[in-house]
Amino acid sequence: MILPIVAYGDPILRKKGIEIKKNYPDLNELIANMQETMYNASGVGLAAQQIGKAIRLFVIDASPFGEDEDFEEGERIVLKDFKRVFINAKIISEEGDEWAFNEGCLSIPDVREDVWRQPKITVIYQDENFENHTETLEGLPARVFQHEYDHIEGILFTDKISSLKKRLIKKKLDNISKGKVKADYRMRFFK
Description:
The longest helix is centred in the last third of the chain and has 15 residues, at 163-177. The protein has a single domain (5-181), classed as Peptide deformylase (Peptide Deformylase, Alpha-Beta Complex), CATH 3.90.45.10. Helices cover 29% and strands 29% of the residues. The strands form three sheets. It has a five-stranded antiparallel beta sheet, with helices on both faces. A two-stranded parallel ribbon has the order 1-9. It is of the alpha+beta class.
């Protein structure tokens, strides 16, 4: 089932997610709904906060990036295969010189800004079967993970841009929070 995506301005987007256990109600259905919602909105990631749940869960499918001609062959293959469910994820290390990439967010339609992030991270998480994983991610997989991870920490990509850029997009953000935005997918606005 396609769920409405929570728009900028809703306090749920600022809530740090709580860890979940294997017996979380209807978890498989929730994951399937999140994936369907992400695909319907042409996203590459979706966190639980974006559908109104303050839990430590997000889904990623970076395969659309894998088709992009701007990436080298090896990176395209990595992106094509980067489809995962992340439960109770934590970043345990970040390495390398920060690099900028133009990011957007389904909760903040029509706003894109360069965000600086470290290129290599090591993470721990559980998958949809609650099996434990430790993984090192680099490049765009690391970036997509960090963006979604920020959501479960109550952080938005707009928090990571300069104060000047924030002032420049303030009107757009205000309009989004008031429901004055058009998106190609269902959104839920805070009243």
